[in-house]
Amino acid sequence: MNKTAIASVLTEIGTLLELKGENPFKIRAYQAGARVIESLGETEIAERVTAGTLEEVKGIGEALAQKITELHTTGRLEYFDKLSASVPAGLVEILRIPGIGAKKARALQEKLGIDTVVKLRAACAAGSVAALDGFGEKTQERILSGIRNREAYNKRHLWLDAWEAAEPILQGLRKLPGVKQVEACGSLRRRMETVGDIDFLVAMTAPAPIVEWFVTRPGIKEVTARGETKASVRLESGLQADLRLVPPEQFVFTLHHLTGSKDHNVAMRQRALARGLSMSEWGLVAAEGEGTVKEKVGLAGERPPPGAKGKEQSAKKKPSSLASPSPLALSPSLQTEAQLFAALGLHYIPPELREGLGEIEAAETDALPVLVEEGDICGVFHNHTTASDGHNTLEEMTAAAQALGLDYLGIADHSKSSVQARGLSEERLVAQIAEINKLNASKKFKCHVFTGTECDILPDGKLDFDARLLGQLDYVVVSVHSSFRQDRAVMTKRIIRAIEQPHVTMLGHLSGRLLLERESYEVDTDKVIDAAIANGVVIELNANPWRLDLDWRHWRKAAEKGLLTSINPDAHLTRQLAFYKVGVGIARKGWLTKENVLNTRPLAAVKKFLAARP
Questions:
Q1: Strands (E), 193-339
Q2: Helix (H, G, I), strand (E, B) or coil at 355
Q3: 494 to each of 115, 552, 591, how far by Cα in Å?
Q4: Helix or strand or coil: residue 224?
Q5: Distances in Å between the alpha carbon of 348 and those of 58, 342, 345, 362, 464?
Q6: What is the pLDDT of residue 243?
Q7: CB under 8 Å to 9, separation ≥6 — which residues?
Q8: Contacts of 418 (CB under 8 A, 6+ apart)
Q9: Rounded to an integer, what is the distance from CA 130 to the centroid of its chain?
Q10: Which of 134, 236, 271, 344 is least enclosed, having the fewest CB within 10 Å?
Q11: Residue 587 phi/psi, 5° resolution?
Q12: Chain-wide mean pLDDT for the chain?
């Protein structure tokens, strides 16, 4: 068992012990053990297990070392199995509802016999939960809202989870004999923040072996459909994966059809009809009573030069079966999506923009932006270390950033009010500043480290640290971590008051949402954006897959107003530094260019930008 799986089991043990009302010190030992394991390398864990030296690692005692060894060597833990069997599985599900901690979950079970979400919903509907001490009407309504949200979200998955499931399937498909082209389509290709299922499109010459491979590969929970050119499976993660097989000459048309949103595809079909063409997943053909395909799209599928008029000949009336043409009716001259767009008088539209939100009009006049790319990112801000709730040390984070090819790294551990995240006191922050300066002076890493903080915005809009201390830092991220239920006007005023403070560089995760878990708090996003622009404050695009905040739907308008962003991974582990790549996908959906993003600038330019701040 690898370290991630081991840490997950240890965390789950802590949760189960909490549900059973065990000693808090025992619970924290497992939680701390999970963090320690995450901070170690796979090789070091294996070597220590073999040598029996796990106890030498700070935070791992004898009992924990034995359990980690058992997990690592056998992939199972008898203690965990017995503990899991002693706690109703439904209680763990109840814990995942926002607003319910272990104490409340135990109270629900002991006083009302509630051990499933179904029973909890029924009890809330009957008003029984509100009657319990420590709950009340507001808590009952929040629980019901949380249940409704989970039911709505259960059908969707984080983009990164879907991509990590899709990538090995894509690689496997590409290696199969007879496969000419392979792409993932749908919301995954459009880089939506959450994904319902994964669509795979394959251009091939022999379908049967490909279908057989797809439905028999490891990690499949059930095969839900299987045909000659289509198949669907349910993965163990709960994701559904759909396979579609087409002949090579049809690939480009089906790829476009399966990628675009409904609104984008409808607009494209209407555009085709206005030009006497019928566009579908099977091809681009002459509409009834119009000229031939070759006359409409050109032999090479290229757009005619502006003002040019091709000769059109009347065609015989087509049969009414054009909605599902035979392969002979396809447009074989179109081999790429760029050619397909060009055939309709459009410049190429990147998949991320195919949402029916003005991209077609922009493509018609060559007004699409040159979107930011992963390779444009020079460094990352807003990252955590073991000083607060991160799982890796300062040096480990710096080494990992350098390994990613980044020129700079911003450390922004939590401030003192974030007690749950072991936020830094003033004294600890001063010590960290000295530690970072010493590391930079040592020249041990080429990657430069910026000193920063993720400073809590207190309920009244004041900041957790005073201006004197904030002025000693290279940059300051301010974020809301408490009092989420303030009303819209109060929350908006609170955030604006914070970003008006002179030493603030960035606003972190503006809406506070957690995808598939927690809705945004009430806030006037437009007012906050205007205030940020007025004060020269950057609003981050938090690239953590659970956040992706600020939402991509706001960025086009905000960037046009002059708002600058920074794509921040909010990394708590070394491997999470690469989250910036997920953030780039969201930035592209928001029509952002390299110029709209602070951390596409080289180190010298970023130093100059930060030095210009108070």
A1: 194-195, 197-204, 220-226, 230-235, 240-246, 277-279, 284-286
A2: coil
A3: 39, 23, 29
A4: strand
A5: 55, 7, 10, 10, 48
A6: 97
A7: 1, 71, 77, 80
A8: 388, 389, 454, 456, 481
A9: 35
A10: 134
A11: -60, -40
A12: 89
DSSP state of 285: E
Q: Which tokens belong to 343?
A: 């055939």
Considering the domain 157-246, what is its CATH architecture? Answer: 2-Layer Sandwich (3.30)
Task: Tell me how far apart the alpha carbons of residues 28 and 71 are, in angstroms, rounded to a whole number.
Answer: 19
Indicate if the pLDDT at residue 321 is higher than 80: no
- For 51-97, give the secondary structure using H, E and C: HCCHHHCCCCCHHHHHHHHHHHHHCCCHHHHHHHHHCCHHHHHHHCC
Q: 3-class secondary structure for 410-468?
A: EECCEECCCHHHCCECHHHHHHHHHHHHHHHHHCCCCCEEEECCEEEECCCCCECCCHH
Q: What would the mean pLDDT of 71-83 be, rounded to a whole number?
A: 90
Mean pLDDT value across residues 49-53: 93
- Per-residue pLDDT band for 88 (boundaries 50, 70, 90) equals confident
pTM: 0.77
Q: Could you tell me where the DSSP H helices lie in 96-158?
A: 102-112, 117-125, 136-153
Burial 562-579 (b: 16+ CB within 10 A, else e): ebbbbbbbbbbbbebbbb
Cis bond before residue 516 (omega within 30° of 0): no
Q: Are 581 and 374 in contact (CB under 8 A)?
A: yes
| DSSP tally for the chain: helices H, then strands E | 25, 17
Phi, psi torsion values for 157, nearest 5 degrees:
-135, 150
User: Residues 348-354: what's their mean pLDDT?
Assistant: 98
Judge whether residue 292 has pLDDT over 60: no
Q: Are the beta carbons of 190 and 371 closer than 8 angstroms?
A: no
383 three-class SS: strand
CATH tag for 374-611 (out of 3.20.20.140, 3.40.50.1370, 2.60.120.650, 3.40.190.10): 3.20.20.140
Residue 370 scores a pLDDT above 50? yes
**Cα–Cα distance between 283 and 452 in angstroms, integer?**
54
* Percent of the chain as helix, strand, coil, to the nearest 5: 50, 15, 40
Domain layout of the chain by residue ranges: 3-153, 157-246, 253-364, 374-611
Query: Rounded distance, CA 237 to CA 165, Å?
Result: 9
pLDDT at 152: 66
Given this model, what pLDDT does residue 309 score? Answer: 32
DSSP string across 6-39: HHHHHHHHHHHHHHTT--HHHHHHHHHHHHHHHH
pLDDT at 289: 44
Q: b vs e for 412-443, b when ≥16 Cβ sit within 10 Å of the residue's Cβ?
A: bbbbbbbeebbbbeeeebeebbebbeebbeee
Scanning the structure block, which residue is given the tokens 């598939």?
A: 516
Tell me the two tokens of residue 507: 């606003």
pLDDT value at residue 310? 32
Report the alpha-carbon distance of residue 564 to residue 601 in Å, rounded: 12
Per residue in 108-129, pLDDT tens? 988 999 989 899 999 999 999 9
Indicate the class that CATH gives domain 253-364.
Answer: alpha beta
The CATH number assigned to the domain with range 3-153 reads 1.10.150.110
